[in-house]
Structures are given as structure tokens and as C-alpha cells.
């Protein structure tokens, strides 16, 4: 039965793939190789499988290349977007600060002008009060003089009548009457002059009041403009500061502690973070001055945030195309030694890819370390350290000060590694923390 089935199969194959002979001729004899239908079928199947595998492998390589190119383009676009957003925030902050300074200067000028007008008005009021007092004194003197004159006239009349009765003559003491009349004329002239001076001072007071009302109206308009500028500045400071504050809090860092450290580091007289206040000549602060001081303090705080952001590792150590191959925490050992704790993250990319410092700091180690291979450790402010392991090349020296974005090495596979990648760690006060906390916290800012 099996022989008959084998014969039928062989007959069917021979109709499709007839038996062939391959002759090999030499100088002495001629040989041939018989290619049976089964042999030809096996060779055809093997060739088909080889061609299919080649097509499949080529497709996979092309798909990986396209995916890597798309990831790199997206990373570059995202980085350009973050940089443009940061530049826009910085430009808007500078414009708001300039507007605040100019508004405060205009406000101080108006305040000084109002102060001058008020001083002049007070002086005018004092002069007017002095004149009124003088007029009252003169009026009292005039009344007393008139009373004395009337009394003198009455006495003169009585004396004249008495003299006429005794001597029959009506002559009087003319010198006394002349003196009294002269005194009365002088007092009347002085009173008239004082009255004219009083009227002139009253007119001056009215003019001063009108000018004061005009200045007060200008002050009110200026205050309204200042309120609008202050409102916009307060909004700009709030909008600019909230993402920075959120970034630090998301990274698990104490914002007040960070800002105090930065402030201590930039506390020199005349330094970039000198105290910003509005001069009040030692007097009490007005509401506008308190508001301006709050805005200036907000700008100062935002500047402190900006400096702190450069000193904390919120940047990416790899800017070329890469993929995350291992996260922070427990994982299976890549060399098959059970569960191990992974104190960083792994970023796999092309060999020789540039590795950058993620914050300002000082290199405390640059060399070979067991397990890490070629490794760089950088000490930053706030008790933070970053570690860059498995490098193929180190481009910095121990003790060297680096800035955020400086190239410090190249990606490699040295040490205990299964392939080209960067092992990146972040330590706070010596304790490893998840670097993705810092990377994710900076996404909405940088």
C-alpha cells in the first residue's frame, strides 16, 4: 500500500519536475548527477524559504529605521517647542519688568509733583491764616482807635462847651484832633492794604486748589494705568512661576529650601539677586508701593527659580534617538541572576551618541568603576548627584566644573552591560531616586 502511494506521488512529481541529469566531463571519463523530482522539490522549497526570510528581514530593518527617524524628528520638534516657549516666557518677563520699572518711575514723578503742590498749598494756607490773624488784630485796633476817637470828640465837645460857658470862646485844642485824624488815616490805609493782600492771597489759594485738583485727576488716571500694568505684571509672574513651582514639587524638592540655597549663593552686594524694593524715603509704604514691591519680589523669586532649574537635573542626558530599555526599581537581572534592584534608567541608542550634563555641577569621578564600566559622577547643588555609566569615552576630568548641556562623554557598552546604552542615575542626599521624576517634571517647562 505504501509502495503504491509512494509510486503515485513520484509519478505526479515527475510530471511537474521531470528527472534531470547533470553531466560532469573530465579528461578521462564522464560522470553525471541524477536530480530526482524529490531533490528538485527540496531545493525549490529551500530557495523559496531563503528568499521569503530575506524579504521579511529587510522589511523589519526598514521599519526600525523609519521608526527611529520619526522618534528623532519628534524629539527635535519637542525640544525646539520647549526652547521657544522658554524664550517667550523670558522675553515676556523682561517686558513686564521694564513696564513695571517705567510705571514706577512715572508714579514717583507724579507723587513728587503732588507733594510739591501740597507743600505750596499748605504754605499758602499758613500765609492766609497769618493774614487773617493780622487783619483781625488791625480790625480790633481800628475799632479801639475809632472808639478812642469818638470818645476824644465827645470829650472835646464837652470841653468846648465848658470853655464857651466860662470864657465865651469856642476855640478847641486843634493839635490833638489833628493827631487823632492822622492816626485814623494811617490805620485805614494799612487796613485797606491788608484787605487787598488778603484778596490776592485768596485768589492764589483758589488757583492752587484748581491746580491741585488737576494734579489729583492726573494722579488718578496714572494710578488707573498703573493698576492695569500691575495686574498684567501680576498675571505674568503667576503664569510664569506656576510651571516652575510645579516642576520642583513634582520632582519631590522643597522649593523654599532650594530658593534659600540659591539666594545664599547670590547674596553679594550688587549681585544678580540683590533685594528689589521701591524707595519710600524711610516712610510707610503706600498700597501702590507695596504692590510694586510684591511684583518685584515675584520677579526676584522667578529669577531664583530659573537659577535653581539650571542647578537641578531637569535636562535630558541623551538628545539623539534612543529608547528606554529598563526602568527604575526592581527587575530581572539581565545576566540571569534573579531579581535585582535597578537604581537608574537605561537609554539605548547608537554607539558614540553624545552624553550631556543635565545640570551645572562639579565632576567628582571620571574613570572606571566595577559594574559601571567607564562612568562619570557629577555633584550638583541641593545635595544632588547624577551618574552616567557604561560610556565608551569620557570627555571630562575629575574636579572639572561643567554646565548644563555640556558634552561629557559618549554612549557605549563598557562594564556589566549587554548592549550599547546609557545607565543614568539621580541621587538626592545619597539616596537613589527615579530620574523619570525629574524628566517628566520638566516636560511642561523646557
Report on the structure:
The structure is a single chain. This protein has 446 residues and is of the alpha+beta class. The chain has 3 domains: 2-64, no CATH class; 94-311; 314-333 and 340-441, Glucose Permease (Domain IIA), CATH 2.70.70. Helices cover 60% and strands 17% of the residues. It has 6 helices and 14 strands. The protein has helices spanning 2-16, 37-167, 174-250, 255-265, 287-311, 435-441; strands spanning 20-25, 30-35, 322-326, 329-332, 339-342, 345-349, 354-356, 361-369, 373-379, 384-394, 401-402, 407-411, 422-428, 431-433. Strands 3, 6, 7, 8, 9, 10, 11, 12, 13 and 14 form a 10-stranded antiparallel beta sheet that branches. The chain has a two-stranded antiparallel sheet with strand order 1-2. β9 (373-379) and β10 form a beta hairpin. α2 packs antiparallel against α3, α2 (37-167) runs antiparallel to α5 (287-311) and α4 (255-265) crosses α5. The radius of gyration is 51 Å and the shape is rod-shaped. The model is unreliable at 269-280 (pLDDT under 50).
